[in-house]
Structure formats: C-alpha cells, structure tokens
Design brief:
binds glutamic acid, 7-stranded antiparallel sheet, 18 helices, alpha+beta, Glutamine Phosphoribosylpyrophosphate, subunit 1, domain 1, 21 strands
C-alpha cells in the first residue's frame, strides 16, 4: 500500500500530472459513481503543519485563515467554526452554505455537545415524495434537482445556537470575512472550476448561470475574481438579524417561492416551515476504542447520522477480528477483514438508522449497536472468504418490523476541525448534499437537496416500512461523521476529524482514525493513506493507489473489486505534547492554519 508521503517526488509529480490530464478529460465513471461524492479534481500536495497553541483545518485556505484570525482575536473554537462556515459558503459553494445543514460537535473542556442543524422535511410531504405517478422511484438525478428535494435549511440556526452558548466574539464580527469575500471577490480555484465546468445542471438555472459562467456559458476560469453581491447582501442581513434573516422576511419568502415555483417538480416548503425550524441538541455518541498503546474514547454524531455508529462498528469489528487473526494494515487479509466488517456495519445501517424522533433505536438504545458483546457476536460472521450476503444483526435479540433501505447516492459536503488555545475543540461537517445542491440559487446561495437522503421507497414488497422513509418534519439519515477523540483515562482531547464523501464518509473517517490511533501515523500521513470501502455492493479501491496483486488477491477471496476515484476531503487536528499537528486532504483544496 502506498502512502502519499512515501511516494518518491518524481512519481508524485507523475501522479499529479496524470490526474490533471484525467481531470481535463474526465473518464466516464463506472457504477461506483453512484455512491461516489463530488467529482475528483487535481491533487494538491499537503504538508499538514505543526502549531503551538491553536489551529483550524478547513476545505479552503481562505476559510482556514478566517478561522485562525478569529482565534487570534481571542475567539472560542465555536466562533472560528462560525466564521469558517460563512467563508466556505462563499468560496466553496459546491459543498455547503446558508442553504444547507450541518452537525457540530463541541468539546468545552468538560463535555461533548452535539448540535444538530440537519435539514427537515416540510410539513406538506408524505412518504411518496420521491415516487412517480406509477408508484416507482423517480430517477435520482431528476429528484436531486427538483423543488421536492429541498429540506428546511438548518446550518445557520444551529451555529447561532452554538454561538449563543459558547461564543466569545460578537456574531456580526464572525460574518465579516465572508461579507468581504463576497463583495470583493475571490480567485476561482482549480477544483471549483472543474466542478462548474463538469456540472450538467447548474447552467440551466438563470441566476446560477449568470454568477458562475461567462456569456458563452463557460465556467469562469481558474483565477477569475468571483464576486457575489447578492450573497454579500444576504450575509449583511444575517450579521444584523442572525438566523431569523433566513427563516423569516424577504429571504424566507424567496426560498419558499423558489421551491414552490420550481420549474421541475415543485416542492411544498413554505414560510411556516422555515419559521418553525429548530436546531436540536443531542447527546454525543461515545464508545471506547482500546489499542495496545492507549485506551481512547471516540465521540461522534448520533442519529439522524449513521456516521458514528457505522464508524464505531467497523473499527470495533476490525479490532475484534484482528485480535484473533492478526493482519498488517493494507495487506490483502486486512483489507478483506475491513470489507467484511464494513458490509456488516452497512447492513445494520440500512435497517435501523433514521431520525431518532421518529424511529426508536434497536433494543431501546443506539449504543446496543456498539456493545462489545454484540460486536463479538457479529465478528463471528467474518470468515476467510467474502460472504455472499451480509445480514443485519439483532442487538438484544429484539425482532424488528422494519425493512432495510436500499443504498442510494449521497454527495457534496465539507469538514472543519478547530482546536483553540484553551483546548476547546470543534468537529463540524456541513453539507448541501449534492455538489451545488438542487442548483437553485436564491439570494446568492444554493438550496440543498438533502431530502434525497431519505429512502425513495417507503416500504418493501411485504409492506414493511423503511426506517428512513419520508415523513413530515423528519430529518433524513446522514453519513456525516464529525469525530472528537479523547484519552479514556485522562479525559484529555486527542483529535478532531471528519470528511465529506456521501456514504463513503464512514470509510474515510474510519481510515483516518485507524491510521492515527492504531497505526500511530501523523494526521497528514493518515489522510494520505489510500481510500477504500464498500456500502454493501462492490469493494471500492482508490484508483492508482493499490498494487495489482492486492486487487487480484481480494478477488480471489470472493470480493467484487472496482478501482475508482474516491475523493475524500478529510481534515484532522491532533493534540501532541508539543502542540498540534494538522492535516488536510490532498484530494481537495483544504488547508490548516494556526499559531
Ligand atoms: N448528504 C450526505 C449526508 O448527509 C453527505 C453528502 C456528502 O458528503 O457528499 O450524509
């Protein structure tokens, strides 16, 4: 297995060149495109970085810098995250913004708080939202770009709540850097250019076409100074009135009109839905991760995200399996065990995971899915060959009346990690779902298509309900996995990490955690490790990163292997005795900034 840091310089240069060529003529993606997230762009070489006191890792250098400036001004980690989110909405519009939702974990020195800013389904929907008149699921891409896909945005309201509880600097100060960038413009990056250029839908929306393309419909070139005065104006309202500026008044009216007047499948979202949005505070989901060196406590986001449970199951199963049959990380035997663990985790995810306000946890507690006794029972299903099927388990032996959800595409997100000088830490994963969401631009920002994270099919053939079916006021199941890790003995913060990448987020995050906590790698080396994973179907290996013998070895064990681009966007900060180490994903354009 190759790590980016042990690839010699010339080889890396060739790899970069090959990727650049590949990006100017994107190859048609195989089936796996259906579960892959935003398209790949060029590799950017990353060096991580070391900081004495405080740091911010985010998907764009301007966002990381804005966060670091807030920390320098005495801000709390939450203040920095708020500033970063607003800047990302300007400079990385494909991934997150005012029209989307987010999950935020905050460590305040004592407790981990989980703030849920997930989009919610409007009051007017029912479980047939994504079924056509013939009762069959709509084509996925038709649903994504429709008014029906738009959930009530929650990121700004959630950040406002977290800021009220933890923030030190005035809210308006945190919106300023984004207002400046939207007013004065920023240079279009290679990644933004690639995504604009390749997007099949964004040009057909008049306001988006005017903002992101020239008169001939060509994406603005790399380096073009992109100004977004409408977004600057919206941000000024948010600076003055907070989230209310989005949920009430003229911007709320414009959102409702855009959804209800959508030329293709209008939705029902109205001003009352927007006014009624409430961010939720949940209990973070924490579980132990003992390693030979140290016992960790891994804290992630509970349902409606499936992220923490699936990551925890994979790491727990992997550990239990390799205790009895040791395998070197990256070897065929290890990759086989990883893939089998992942398939078992995704089977549980498909059956049980959904909005906890609508669907009770199995055996009365989401922790039942992570209980050591349950994982010991599940690990027995991992044998020397790939199983033909991966059944869901029954924690506490409780029967379920639910039907499993079929795997659907998910794409388009950003991750932010912050640690401030007082040791407060943030892991924020934020999304508008697909790249550029529904491609509907309102008041300078794009509306999410998060409702396509619900199951299109509400029932199976026997009429058993799918836990993650559409219901009014419900939050769609997510894969986002913002994670904070602690030393289980001292309680001290160890690291903050997370990634975009649709359902593959689970694998990217598991890889980074395994790399840092089990293999002892630096954040950058762990992020650079080759990506792999499965959501229940083929085993996906990151193109160009595995030896041919590895793929054939896995095929010989019964795996269906596909080599595809796997564009993670991991960010990580790790606390060390000498300070902080950071890492950002070379597959996107992130950066780590700090002091
Ligand atoms: N919509 C996905 C989720 O909430 C994330 C999409 C992505 O990361 O690309 O889990």
């Amino acid at each position: 297995m190759q790590t980016l840091s042990n690839i010699p310089g010339l080889l890396l240069a060739n790899l970069l060149a090959a990727l650049l060529v590949a990006c100017s003529h994107p190859p048609p993606l195989p089936d796996a495109a259906a579960i892959a997230p935003e398209a790949p762009s060029a590799l950017t070489q990353q060096h991580g970085g070391r900081f004495d006191r405080q740091a911010v890792a985010a998907a764009h250098p301007l966002a990381a810098e804005a966060g670091a400036a807030v920390l320098r001004a005495g801000g709390h980690a939450v203040d920095a995250a708020v500033a970063v989110q607003f800047v990302l909405g300007v400079v990385e519009p494909q991934s997150s913004g005012l029209g989307g939702g987010a999950f935020l974990l905050v460590h305040d020195g004592r407790t981990v708080h989980a703030y849920d800013g997930r989009e919610t389904a409007p009051r007017g929907v029912d479980e047939r939202l994504f079924l056509g008149p013939d009762g069959r699921p709509l084509p996925f891409d038709v649903a994504v770009t429709s008014g029906r896909a738009v959930g009530v945005p929650g990121a700004v309201a959630m950040l406002e709540l977290a800021h009220r509880r933890h923030g030190r600097l005035p809210w308006a100060r945190l919106v300023e850097p984004a207002i400046r960038l939207a007013d004065e413009g920023f240079a279009v990056t290679p990644r933004l250019h690639t995504l604009l250029d390749q997007d099949p839908h964004l040009r057909s929306h008049p306001a988006a076409r005017q903002l992101y393309y020239d008169a001939q419909g060509q994406a603005w070139p790399v380096g073009h100074r992109l100004r977004n005065p409408a977004l600057a104006d919206t941000l000024r309202h948010i600076a003055r009135d907070g989230a209310r500026a989005l949920h009430e008044g003229h911007i709320a009216t414009a959102i409702a009109q855009a959804v209800q007047g959508h030329p293709q499948l209008p939705g029902t979202l109205d001003e009352q839905d927007l006014r009624g949005y409430q961010p939720r505070v949940r209990a973070a989901l924490c579980h132990p991760l003992p390693t030979p060196e140290r016992r960790y406590r891994v804290c992630g986001f509970p349902p409606p995200s499936s992220g923490a449970i699936a990551v925890g199951q994979i790491l727990g199963l992997l550990q239990a399996a390799t205790e009895t049959t040791p395998a070197h990380p990256g070897s065929v035997a290890w990759l086989h065990t990883y893939a089998e663990a992942a398939r078992l985790a995704f089977a549980d995810r498909a059956l049980y995971l959904a909005d906890p306000d609508f669907v009770p946890p199995p055996a009365g507690d989401w922790h039942s899915l992570l209980a050591p006794a349950y994982l010991r029972e599940r690990v027995r299903l991992i044998g020397p060959h790939a199983r033909p099927d991966a059944p869901a388990g029954r924690p506490g032996s409780t029967p379920t009346a639910l039907a499993p959800m079929a795997e659907q595409p998910e794409r388009g997100t950003s991750h932010v990690s912050v640690v401030d000088a007082d040791g407060h830490a943030v892991a924020l994963t934020t999304t508008i779902e697909s790249a550029f969401g529904t491609r509907t631009l309102v008041a300078g920002f794009l509306l999410n298509n998060q409702l396509t994270d619900f199951s299109f099919l509400p029932h199976d053939r026997q009429g058993r309900p799918v836990a993650n079916r559409v219901e009014p006021g419900k939050r769609p199941r997510s894969s986002m996995a913002p994670t904070l890790v602690f030393d289980d003995t001292t309680g001290e913060l160890v690291l903050s990490t997370g990634s975009p990448g649709g359902a593959m987020i689970i694998h990217y995050t598991a890889k980074a955690l395994h790399g840092m906590l089990v293999q002892g790698l630096t954040p950058q080396a762990a992020i650079d490790l080759p990506n792999l994973g499965t959501t229940g179907g083929p085993l996906l290996l990151e193109q160009g990163r595995f030896a041919p013998a590895t793929a054939s070895g896995l095929r010989a064990l019964g795996h269906t292997v596909q080599e595809v681009p796997l564009t993670s966007g991991l960010q990580a900060l790790r606390r060390q005795p000498h300070g902080l180490e950071g890492g950002a994903d070379p597959r996107r354009e992130g950066a780590v900034a700090g002091d």
